[in-house]
Amino acid sequence: MSILRAIIKTNKGEIRIDLFPDKTPNTVANFVNLAQRNFYNGLKFHRVIEDFMIQGGCPQGTGTGGPGYKFRDEFDSSLKHNKPGILSMANAGPGTNGSQFFITHVPTPWLDGKHSVFGAIVDEKDQEVVNSIRQGDVMESVTIEGDPSSVLAVAKPFLDEWNQILDSKK
User: What is the signed CA dihedral for 158, 142, 119, 162, rounded to 10 degrees?
Assistant: First the structure.
């Protein structure tokens, strides 16, 4: 699959994240699909814990909301929470992934096998923006660079169901 990069434009600057579609295709397809549907635009980082992580993707801004569907975890043994800048799904237990995600400030190895890693920041400049985010800061937009067609094709059965649910909420 081609290289995919997410650009999260915030009120503090841009966070560039390389996505891992070869290792977590459904998780990446979910994120890409939500980004392409402008789901994240205008949402706040509702949970920020210093020296741990920033969390966003809740349409209610409280950590209780999501897209209206849940999907199973995807774990790859090579993807770990072993450094700052790891992009991972926030969840409330196994199989409860939706739209919420977090980006780490530090290594968080206790999250391995509990939260699906599906990307990592590009460089230190991106980590500086991550570290500057405070609770209530806004994701102005999330855009995808690269061609996501192959990962979206792999996840088509899920995407059809997810988009039907998202369309019914309009």
Answer: -10
Pairing verdict, β 13-19 and 53-56: unpaired
Residue 46: left if φ>0, alpha if ψ -120 to 50, beta else—which one?
alpha
What count of residues does the chain have? 170
Q: Which domain holds residue 50?
A: 5-168
**Beta carbons of 115 and 91 less than 8 angstroms apart:** yes
pLDDT digits (tens, 9 = 90+) for 73-103: 999 999 999 999 999 999 999 999 999 999 9
- Catalytic positions: 47, 52, 55, 91, 102, 111, 115
pTM score of the predicted model: 0.97
Looking up residue 100, the CATH number of its domain turns out to be 2.40.100.10
Question: 17 with 28: CB under 8 angstroms?
Answer: no
Domain count, the chain: 1
Closest among 56, 55, 93 to 72, alpha carbons compared: 93
Give which of 31, 10, 25 is closest to 144, Cα–Cα: 31
Q: Are 13 and 136 in contact (CB under 8 A)?
A: no
Would you give the distance in Å from CA 58 to the centre of its chain? 11
